[in-house]
Amino acid sequence: MSKRRLLHAAAVCALLAAAQASAHHSFTHFDRDTELVKTGTVVRWAFNNPHAYLYVNVEENGEVTLWSLEASSPTTLIERGITGSTFEPGDTVTFMFCPLRDGRPGGAIGWARLEDGTFVNPSEAGCWLREETLERWKVWLERGFKSNLEAQAAE
Amino acid sequence: MPLRDTRGRMLFAAVILAAPTMASAQFGDGYGPPLVPEPPPMEFESSEAHYRYLLEKANGGTKHTIETVPRWDGLWQTAGNTVMSNFVDAPGFTGKVREGVLTPEYEAAYKERWREQTELGQVQYDRLSHCEPQGYPRFLLEPYTHEFINLPHQVYQINDFANSIRRIYIDQEHKNIFGTHSWYGDTIGFWDGDKLITHTVDLLPADFTRWAPMTSNQFESVEIWELKKYPGGIERLEVQVTFYDKYAFVKPIHAVYAFRRATALEEAGYRVQHWECELTSNVYLEADGSTNMRLPGEEGFKDARGTTMFPHLPGQSRDPIYNTTLPTDRRDNDE
Q1: How confident is the model at residue A128 (pLDDT cuts 50, 70, 90)?
Q2: What is the rounded distance in angstroms from the CA atom of residue A146 to the CA atom of residue B318?
Q3: CA B131 to chain centre
Q4: How far, in Å, CA of A133 to CA of A138, rounded?
Q5: What is the predicted pLDDT for the residue at B6?
Q6: Which of B115, B220, B224, B294 has the fewest CB neighbours in a 10 Å radius?
Q7: Nearest-angstrom CA–CA distance, B270 and A1
Q8: Separation CA B80–CA B35 (nearest Å)
Q9: pLDDT score of B20
Q10: What is the pLDDT at residue B27?
């Protein structure tokens, strides 16, 4: 496919991608009011149905923790230009997520920033990413915030 | 070494974040003109009577050949439906449950489900989490992809959600040699020109979706499928459906469902793959009725890209391209 057709298709499908929320499970286990940001190394990008999962090793205070992040379904992600090779093992990725309510190292992913600085949207109903949310986060990232609650308190 | 889709990343990056991301109660609505339900011209005593009326009106139906049978080839995605307007008096998750549509028992059960959705923000648990099939009528609105294979004697309707297949037996009568009901029941049908008319019976109890009412083992339907074309090159496969359920509904209800061509997926090279729930879902039911998920290394975690039961043999990884591994014990990660 030509570059122009690919871009056109992406634009069209982005507009049509209206919220194919996978109906496979409820999202009660995610705290959708809290948004956290971490940076780590990709261990695995499991581009599987019914939900893709991003597994990332995050080093904090000298300890490495594996974080498990639920993303949308492959069909929805493909319509947003995300494929099975968007993240690869060893990549450095910064990601925003809505954490599990019980505090274990997992959550629903909101956005991810790739090594080249590109933001992608793998989100689903566990941590819906709206355009304004991302724009707000770009400002907060410049100011060094890693939590929406901290950022909102400081504003 | 896997190829990195750098071009794809860069090209799509500009548009993906503009994509609408709000949750939709109807799955993909907004494609083409508003959906208009077309209820049957009269009330029928049963789905059987409704189906026989349509068959008689079509003079026994159109006998298609392989050359003339309507073709709906390719990948399709859901494009909205009107079913929720039967049960709730406002769009989205803001309305109240309409009273007198469901029988008292089903209305009470649905009010609790709707309370969870509206007050708690989510129905607390979805039966699909423990890998129940979507079943029917949920088949009509599940996302992922659908395929419709029309042959003169039989129609196959496929949803890649856990790869379910619904079969419609053309110009035949119902059969049930199993002595029970099933997730997709028994569906017969006939062609009326380019329209496909179906009758479905012998279903297991299911639901319309997580935030919609439950259905009983007496749920039945009559469907009219038609491919419609609208200005702007819009093609929409529309299904006018009347649902019958003597246990759940006071009267039969009617809705229209739609599908649009999954052009973007096809252009991206998407091909349907087999997937099932048992190896890919780590969501489970908590003791308090809520939903949670297992993490790598925790007891019960299912690793869809792990190894088979024979890890000592070469080539037993289910992640043969990247060959990644996840912790098998939570302590591996904590230490």
Answers
A1: very high
A2: 35
A3: 14
A4: 9
A5: 44
A6: B115
A7: 14
A8: 8
A9: 34
A10: 54
Three-state DSSP string of A5-57: HHHHHHHHHHHHCCCCCCCCCCCCCECCCCCEEEEEEEEEEECCCCCCEEEEE
Q: Which of A12, A28, A73 is best to mutate for the B interface (most B CBs within 10 A)?
A: A28
Share of chain B above pLDDT 90, in %: 79
Per-residue burial over B258-285, b = 16 or more CB atoms within 10 Å of its CB, e = otherwise: bbbbbbbbebbebebeebebeebbbbeb
Q: B 56-85 residues with CB below 8 A of A? A: 77-78
Alpha-carbon dihedral angle through residues B281, B287, B288, B291, given to the nearest 10 degrees:
-10
Where in B202-334 does DSSP place strands (E)?
206-207, 214-215, 220-230, 234-244, 253-261, 283-285, 291-293
The residue of chain B nearest to residue A77, with distances taken between CA atoms, is B16
Chain B residues with CB inside 8 Å of A100's CB?
Answer: 292-293
Indicate the pairing of strand A63-70 with strand A106-113: parallel
Q: Which residue from A38, A99, A35 is spatially nearest to A64, judged by alpha carbons?
A: A38
Contact A68, A95 (CB under 8 A): no
Residue B330, pLDDT score: 54
Residue ranges per domain, chain B? 2-267, 308-335
| pLDDT above 80 (res A114) | yes
pLDDT (tens digit, 9 = 90+) per residue, B137-184? 999 998 889 999 999 999 999 999 888 999 999 999 999 999 999 999
Of A50, A82, A111, Cβ closest to residue B281: A50
In Å, how far are B47, B121, B298 from B326, measured between CA atoms?
52, 32, 11
Strand A63-70, strand A92-99: pairing:
unpaired
CATH number of A36-154: 2.40.50
| Residue B44 confidence (pLDDT) | 97
Lowest mean pLDDT, pick from B154-158, B263-267, B274-278: B274-278
Rounded mean pLDDT of chain A? 88
- What chain A residue is nearest to B125 in terms of C-alpha separation? A26
Q: Do B208 and B137 contact (CB within 8 A), yes or no? A: yes
Counted residue by residue, chain A has a size of 155
With an 8 Å Cβ cutoff, are A46 and B27 in contact?
A: no
Residue B33, preceding bond cis, omega within 30 degrees? no
Interface residue B233 vs chain A (CB under 8 A): no
